[in-house]
Design brief:
The chain has a domain at about 5-240: Nucleotidyltransferase, domain 5 (2-Layer Sandwich), CATH 3.30.420. The protein is built from 18 helices and 23 strands. The protein has a seven-stranded mixed beta sheet with strand order 17-18-16-15-21-22-23, sandwiched between helices. The protein has a six-stranded mixed beta sheet with strand order 3-2-1-5-14-13. The longest helix is centred in the last third of the chain and has 25 residues, at about 365-390. Bound molecules: adenosine-5'-diphosphate and 5-O-phosphono-D-xylulose. 5-O-phosphono-D-xylulose binds next to helix 10. GO terms for molecular function: ATP binding; D-xylulokinase activity.
Length: about 500
């Protein structure tokens, strides 16, 4: 018998479930994909039932294929894609597809929130009410689907819905709750002032718990459905970026997290809750009790690469396409890519900006375009790092996680653009490992998250900046920074054109 915990990483493209022992050994991993629907420009939706089915497929495979014994699975915890709005009726049935973090249809509601509350909103939540966050989505439903809003009795985030289906109990942890922009960060409770301002019943907001808190055992129904035992306990878990930071050992302000998932994230540990970046960077409760983190988000990081691959190399192997960038040069033979293909979150909070390739030349080949995509995503990360550096932060190490960390070339590009040492994890499942760590601490296997970090978190490869590349990338980044102001009016016009013509 090997006691283990499961870390469930509910991402945007797939769910990955990792089984981890008390010594931090990952003994099995399974994953299952689910679709993202974009029925109109700016819309991004998923069916919450797909998350439940995919997670169950992964768990069933762990039991049947990897031979995990249900009685050995002592605890489960969760890492979840953030901000997605799931609305339940009085019978806890899902009322509409979930509106995800990369759904930007709520620009009007974002403006209305700022018009009504302005700076006071940022004081309370430490964030701007950007389209990606939950409150503007909720107000969009209130305005555009009043029948659904009237039936809504509970608001959940993606991983909270998944946990609810596995346990029958409703809860939301603080790290995900900050991402709703309805939490008062100083008071650590739902902001009555914000709820009153927008006439939202407090009863929609679920009970708040800490990430390491027990959220009930697996229900009899879910045990019968999945093969799990009803003795397995669940622990609340956290926002994927909070869990990614836990799983990557980001426990001091000199280490920075670089995550290339569907989105991209540059994240810094924040010991104090009075820090306020005025909403240029996000500020969130951590999954570590009484700690916080800030981050800047590139909306389409891995998503840009996926788009390129699906559009121009659909039948080819993903890894081979990424590797082909090695045939190009630093700077992709003079080609730049700006990854604003679904709008941008930071440092430009602009739902209507769109992406571009700049400098296309008759000599360019497909591998130059692949290289430009990889580099453009990291130039956008460099814009985020620059926000911290401008405020006096200094970083010794960048820890690279997410699907993008599968590519050594992409990690070297990060080291060269950041001009900082980049390290990878022994296992790239940062958020899944972080979730498993929360279960391990919740079960009492470790006193604190930092005790668990010492045992669970191991680094693998080190990528040092190459001075000749650093110099070239500094010049290229200065050119890249001209893309946003130079293309803003043109791409806004094109988005307006698509809206007018209802083009897909
Ligand atoms: N072999 C690879 N090399 C580089 N990037 C990859 C590779 N495979 C997948 N990716 C990137 O990883 C991203 C998915 O990362 P992941 O962390 O799993 O995302 P999410 O949590 O959003 O589902 C994809 O969007 C893709 O661009
Ligand atoms: O919106 C954010 C953070 O604010 C995103 O980071 C989501 O949390 C989705 O994460 P991935 O699926 O890309 O991991």
């Amino acid at each position: 018998m090997t006691a283990c915990v499961l870390g469930v990483d509910l991402g945007t493209s797939s769910v990955k479930v990792s089984a981890v022992t008390k010594t931090g050994a990952i003994i099995a991993q399974e994953s299952a994909d689910f679709p993202l629907r974009q029925p109109q420009p700016g819309y991004a939706e998923q069916d919450p039932e797909d998350w439940v089915s995919a997670t169950t497929i992964a768990i069933v495979r762990l039991i049947l294929t990897d031979k995990l014994k249900p009685a050995d699975i002592k605890g489960i915890s969760y890492s979840g894609q953030m901000h997605g709005l799931v609305l339940l009726d009085a019978a806890n049935q899902v009322l509409r597809p979930a509106m995800l973090w990369n759904d930007t249809r709520s620009t009007k509601q974002r403006a209305a929130i700022m018009a009504k509350m302005g700076q006071r909103f940022i004081e309370i939540t430490h964030n701007q009410p950007l389209e990606g966050f939950t409150l503007p989505k909720l107000l969009w439903v209130k305005e555009n689907q009043p029948d659904i809003f009237a039936q809504a009795k509970t608001m959940l985030l993606p991983k909270d819905y998944l946990r609810f289906r596995m346990t029958g109990k409703l809860a939301m942890d603080y790290s995900d709750a900050t991402g709703t922009v309805m939490l008062d960060v100083q008071q650590q409770q739902w902001s009555q002032e914000i709820l009153d301002a927008f006439d939202i019943p407090k009863s929609l907001c679920p009970p708040l718990v800490r990430s390491i808190d027990d959220t009930g055992s697996i229900s009899a129904w879910y045990a019968a459905y999945s093969g799990l035992a009803t003795t397995t306990r669940t622990f609340a878990g956290g926002a994927d970026n909070a869990c990614g930071a836990v799983g990557a050992g980001i426990d001091s302000p000199t280490k920075v997290l670089s995550s290339i998932g569907t989105s991209g994230v540059i994240l810094k540990y924040e010991p104090a809750k009075n820090t306020n970046y005025q909403g240029v960077l996000q500020f969130e409760d951590h999954a570590i009790p009484d700690a916080f983190y800030s981050m800047g988000v590139t909306l389409a990081a891995g998503f840009s690469l996926n788009w390129f691959k699906q559009t121009f190399a659909a039948d080819e192997d993903f890894t081979a396409v990424v590797k082909s960038a090695g045939k190009s040069t630093v700077g992709a033979n003079g080609l730049l890519f700006a990854p604003y293909i679904v709008g941008e979150r930071a440092p430009y909070a602009d739902a209507d900006i769109r992406g571009s390739f700049i400098g296309i030349d008759g000599i360019h080949q497909r591998h130059d375009f692949v290289r430009a995509v990889l580099e453009g995503i990291i130039f956008s990360f460099q814009d985020l790092l620059a926000q911290y550096v401008a405020q006096g932060s200094q970083f010794e190490t960048v820890v690279s996680i997410g699907g993008g960390a599968k590519s050594a070339l992409w990690q070297q590009i990060q080291a060269d653009i950041f001009n900082t040492k980049v390290v990878s994890l022994a296992n790239e499942q940062g958020p899944g490992l972080g979730a498993a760590m929360l279960a391990a601490v919740g079960l009492g296997w470790f006193e604190t998250v930092s005790e668990c970090t010492k045992v669970f978190v191991h680094f693998k490869d080190v990528f040092l900046p190459k001075p000749e590349n650093v110099a070239k990338y500094q010049k290229l980044h200065a050119l890249y920074q001209q893309i946003y102001p130079s293309t803003k009016a043109i791409t806004h016009g094109l988005v307006a054109y698509r809206r007018e013509n209802n083009a897909q």
